[in-house]
Every structure is written in structure tokens, then in C-alpha cells.
Amino acid sequence: MRISTDSLCALTALCLATTASAKFPDNFDQPLEVVAFGSCNRDELPQPLWPVIAANAPDLWIWGGDNIYADWHERPDGRRVNHTVNREWVAECYAAQRVQPGYAVFRELIPILGTWDDHDYGRNNATSSYKLKAVTRDLALEFMEVPPEDARWQREGLYGAYDFGPEGRRTKVVLLDNRYFASSRKADAPDLLGDAQREWLAATLRESTADLHLLVSGTQILSEAHEYEKWADYPEDREWLLDLIREEGMPMTVLLSGDRHIHEISVLDDPALDYPLVDVTSSGLTHSWEDFPGEANSLRRGEVFTGLGFGLLTIDWSGKTPEVTIEIRDDENAVRNSVTVPRQ
After folding, report:
1. pLDDT by residue (tens digit) across 117-173?
2. CB-based contacts of 151, cutoff 8 Å, min separation 6
3. Domains annotated on the chain, with CATH
4. For the segment 68-79, what is each residue's pLDDT rounded down to a tens digit?
5. What is the value of pTM for the model shown?
6. What is the DSSP letter of 232?
7. Cβ neighbours of residue 193 closer than 8 Å, sequence gap 6 or more
8. CB-CB contact of 64 with 220 (8 Å)
9. Within a 13 Å sphere around the CA of 191, how many CA atoms are in the beta-carbon half?
10. Rounded to an integer, what distance in angstroms lies between the CA atom of residue 116 and that of residue 125?
């Protein structure tokens, strides 16, 4: 579907006329039917996608990481400017994003959750040794207006989980933290999640009453061959997670990821699962890898899309179990790639 020029103009006018106030979900009783998500967003660049995403009327927006770039920005002349990251600077970056006209109205319309990746954490490829992590964690929670009584404020890291909908139509959104506890991927025994988050995740999934799990990670979980950051750099954590998903009785699980400045869909057909395990990567809200040279990925379905775009999940609850249609959409709302996870 392509949005008309009149619709875009109307939404843009509404953006410019609206005062921003953040939107944390306030209704967890209604089932999720449309979920949008994306990553890699720089506050100093044009942000044309917010009215396009809003036109799909999602029940929830999920930030997939790199929600701001606190460590650097690019000047109009193409020069890269690196920043000394501190509390004041990160707060300023988030403040600039809050009042970005398109996002300001989007926040009024759409409930928002999210996690982070490295650039909003504070430094490219940063891990647990990053000294400002407690500060940037608090600022990330403030940006997403997580209420002070929320459990995420009571522990280290940014991870958390939320249930939406009644029994039989319940989705659990699980937000993972792949920065705060992570060792170097070159360590002798690389550890991505840390003991506390691993124990929490195991309990959260095993005790879940949801019919669908959405697991959100800043980096790709399934894709293994490329040289950039990914769960495959932490093979024990990756296999542990896959084994957890494979456990008998675990409901349908869909993986959402970002980081790569490309959009692609990876699918693992695992004989231990009654459904294909999908990792949909949507990365490029304000900038993308337009000259992407290509790379191996034996699990890829369809083609890599290298323009600006976002991910869209449509959940069909008409049967005993859900059916999930997963799409990558571009800045004209056209579908560039899609896959459907059928009912079990």
C-alpha cells in the first residue's frame, strides 16, 4: 500500500501542531494485532518514516536499538563528528529526538516500548566494561517513559517483559539487553547475557502464559556468517536460547533484531519446532547501507532491502493459535519482503 500525498501532508501538519508527550503503554488488556518496530535512528537526520508507520495504525511500536547516536553524528558536509559522551550530552540527544516533529505526534498516537544497542548505550560496539552504562540505562528508561514502579528500574540493565491481551490471545514482548552484561566477543568464554539476565529470561519464558513471544534483540540472533556483531559471536548463549525456545510447550516465538543498517529475514526450519523460527532484522529508520555489497546467509528468505524502512507484524488471532505475517516496508509503505509464520 502506498500512502497518498494528501495523507502524508495531513499527518505532517498534525506533527507540527502537536506538543510532544511520551507514550508508555497504558492498556495491556487488549491483544496486539499490529506491531511495528525499527532501529538505527539519528536525531540530526530527516525522519520521514513516522507518518508512514503511523498510517498502519500499529498497536505498539518497539525500538530495536540505536534509537539515538550519542557517540557521533555526521555534518551536512559529510564530515563525521565524534562526541565525548556524558550525561548531559546523552540527555540532549534524547531531548532532540522527543521534539523531532514526526516523532512528537507519533508518540501521542502509538504506545512505545524498546531496548537499545551500542550507539544509544554510548559507544560503538561497547560491552559491559563501558563506564557510563548505569547513566545511559537511566536515560534510556526515561526516554521511553518507563514508569518508576516498573521492575526494569529495580535491576541493572535494560531488559524486561510485558504481556498484552487476554488468555488465548496473549503476546509477551521480551526486551533483551545485549550490552550491559556482555563480555568482549573475543573473550576465551564470551558471555552475552550475564547470569542474572539469563536466569530471568529462562524463568520468564518457562512461566509464560502467553500464546506468542516476541523476543527483541539489538543484534541478530540467527544469522551467523557475517563479520559484524551477532549472537553467533557468543555461541553458548545462542545455543542456550535456541534450546530454551525448543522446549516442549513453548509457544510460537518470533525474533526481532536491528543494528545492521539493512533489512532482512532469516528463517530456521528446526525439526524440534512446530513452526519456522524467524529473525526479522529491520535497521535503517534514518540511514541505511545503500551500497551494501552482499554477504552470505544460508537462512535468508527473500532479498536484502537496503533503503529506509521498518518492520511490521500482523497477528491473526482467529484460530486456536496465532498466525503472524512479518513484513519489511519502505518509506512509501510498500512491502519489500515478507514471510508468514503459520498456526501450529
Report:
1. 999 999 999 999 999 999 999 999 999 999 999 999 999 999 999 999 999 999 999
2. 160
3. 5-341 (3.60.21.70)
4. 999 988 877 778
5. 0.93
6. G
7. 176, 177, 178, 181, 182, 201, 237
8. no
9. 12
10. 12
